[in-house]
């Protein structure tokens, strides 16, 4: 699909949330929003992102020989630095504006993006909370999960545990078989509601860094193509890493940032600001 054949203006047009939507997000720390992006935009970027994932993918081990983490998805990070077309989606003011409204902050920066492609026959993604990996000073983070296609249950859409950001146990677990077992038990014992629904074309979810989530296996013969963008408060400061993964994230996604200072680096630009 040629760039001239598609109108990308919607990427910078406001998607205005109502009070009920904002209240729902702040109570549950996730929300699914319909008609965020039109089908032709998703088809266009889906093609471009798929080509980049194929080009940059280094995982060539057969599915049956991988561990649980690597069966869950092909993962390519910061595509915006590798392709100017993908950058247009990642830098979308429409998406960044939604993140700003949900968190009630003055603006948002990019933490990083990642393509998450679940292969045909790909395994489940274990329960986890993203912010385990992030050396960030507060909880003002939100991830946009953008399916490039309609995503039925059989394809492994994102699942959420409503209000589970209140659960302290399990926050110290990386994505693994252990996180699936331990967190699943804790969520059941504390009676948190599990929400798993298909995604319509154009539907995008947003979730906070400490809400627990997972995804089922892809039992179809089609690739589940998803692009994600992780936003943080425009004024987010770097904290001292609490585990090796947070140190790795500091080195990789916030290079040059200083502990206690705003994470203002060339690869953490402000994507939206109210002023």
Automatic annotation (TrEMBL):
Pfam families: PhyH. Keywords: Dioxygenase, Oxidoreductase. One of its GO terms (molecular function) is iron ion binding. This is Phytanoyl-CoA dioxygenase. The keyword Repressor does not apply. Its cofactor is Fe(2+). It comes from the Bacteria.
């Amino acid at each position: 699909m040629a760039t001239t054949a598609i109108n990308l203006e919607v990427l910078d047009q406001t998607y205005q949330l109502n009070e009920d939507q904002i209240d729902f997000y702040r109570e549950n720390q996730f929300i699914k929003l319909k008609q965020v992006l039109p089908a032709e935009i998703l088809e266009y970027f889906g093609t471009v992102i798929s080509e980049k994932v194929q080009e940059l993918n280094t995982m060539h081990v057969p599915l049956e020989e991988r561990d649980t983490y690597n069966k869950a998805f092909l993962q390519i990070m910061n595509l915006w630095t590798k392709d100017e077309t993908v950058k247009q989606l990642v830098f979308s003011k429409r998406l960044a504006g939604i993140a700003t409204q949900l968190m009630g902050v003055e603006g948002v920066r990019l933490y990083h993006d990642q393509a998450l492609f679940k292969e045909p026959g790909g395994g489940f993604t274990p329960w986890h909370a993203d912010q385990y990996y992030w050396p960030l000073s507060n909880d003002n983070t939100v991830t946009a999960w953008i399916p490039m296609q309609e995503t039925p249950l059989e394809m492994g859409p994102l699942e959420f545990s409503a209000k589970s950001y209140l659960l302290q146990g399990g926050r110290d677990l990386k994505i693994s078989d252990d996180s699936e077992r331990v967190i699943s038990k804790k969520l059941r014992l504390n009676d948190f509601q599990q929400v798993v629904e298909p995604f319509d074309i154009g539907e995008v979810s947003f979730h906070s860094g400490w809400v627990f989530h997972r995804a089922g296996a892809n039992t179809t013969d089609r690739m589940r193509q998803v692009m994600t963008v992780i936003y943080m408060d425009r004024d987010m400061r770097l904290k001292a890493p609490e585990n090796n993964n947070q140190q790795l994230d500091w080195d990789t996604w916030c290079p040059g940032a200083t502990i206690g200072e705003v994470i203002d680096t060339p690869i953490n630009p402000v994507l939206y600001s109210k002023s």
